[in-house]
Write a structure and sequence with these properties.
CATH architecture: 3-Layer(aba) Sandwich
Strand content: 25-35%
CATH topology: Rossmann fold
Radius of gyration: 18 Å
Number of strands: 8
Distance between the termini: 34 Å
Order of helices and strands: HHEHEHEEHEHHEHHEE
């Protein structure tokens, strides 16, 4: 999966994590925006059911990518701002806005670890599929809380592998996408949101079906890693060691990303 922020960590080859992120998602910008699974109506419906956006809401979409969530919220609220660190993703987001003829959105190119907004600016702050690309997602979560109004809501959607499958899951995802850092369990996410003193925490689950061939075409793994990934998924068909419920359909490997949505309210 994905998303984008700035930090100072470096990879083994000395390349900064931000450079890896921008490189990966510059390549992924167009295929990601066109991947039908990321506009999955069941998942979007569950997100809106959980967050209950209102006409008067001003929303911030953190690590907005190609603007899919930003534009979906725009149909339901007063205004939405999307922020991302990858220029190619912001360009795709603007294309989507133009295509859908939406005028109540704005875009920021910037660092989500230091959100360029005043305290208490938004009534709803959301992020989707971003935390597993961050070395310290709690820093971003604290920023999300800072810019959220008292009584406002903070929604995090991300992949959440089971505890006993977490290491294997993270291993294969790092092979597929070098910008992947660590996917947390749902309990780890819940504790993180609890630690910033949000109240009324609620959690929903949504498994996102994918086929391996399509996602590999849009992921751009390092040379040689594609074969290793396919081998791990072939083993998963019998062993379920990745926790992704891999199965064959029309001779192609399909699987499910284990997705959780967790929401909390900033105390007044």
């Amino acid at each position: 999966m994905l998303f984008f922020y700035v930090d100072s960590n470096t990879h083994e080859n000395g390349v900064s994590h931000i450079d890896v992120i921008v490189s990966q998602f510059t390549k992924q910008a167009v295929p990601f925006s066109q991947m039908a699974q990321h506009s999955n109506h069941d998942g979007l419906g569950l997100m809106f059911e959980l967050s209950d956006p209102q006409n008067e809401d001003n929303v911030l979409d953190v690590a907005c990518g190609p603007g899919i969530i930003t534009c979906e919220f725009a149909y339901r609220v007063n205004h939405v701002t999307g922020i991302d660190i990858t220029p190619a993703m912001i360009a795709e987001a603007k294309n989507l806005q133009k295509e859908r003829k939406i005028d109540n959105v704005g875009w920021k190119l910037g660092d989500v670890t230091r959100l360029p907004f005043e305290d208490d600016s938004f009534s709803l702050v959301v992020t989707r599929y971003s935390f597993h690309h961050m070395h310290n997602p709690k820093v971003v979560l604290k920023e999300m809380k800072r810019v959220c109004k008292p009584g406002g809501k903070i929604l995090v959607t991300d992949v959440t592998p089971d505890f006993d499958k977490k290491n294997a899951y993270n291993h294969v995802e790092k092979l597929r996408d070098p910008s992947h850092t660590e996917a947390l369990t749902v309990e780890e996410l819940r504790q993180m949101i609890k630690s910033i003193e949000c109240i009324n925490i609620r959690i929903e689950h949504h498994d996102l079906e994918m086929d391996l061939e399509t996602i590999l075409q849009s992921s751009f793994p390092k040379p040689g890693d594609k074969d290793r990934i396919v081998q791990l998924f072939e083993q998963d068909l019998a062993q379920d060691h990745l926790g992704m419920r891999s199965y064959l359909k029309n001779d192609k490997i399909h699987f499910y990303f284990p997705v959780s949505m967790i929401i909390g309210t900033k105390e007044t």
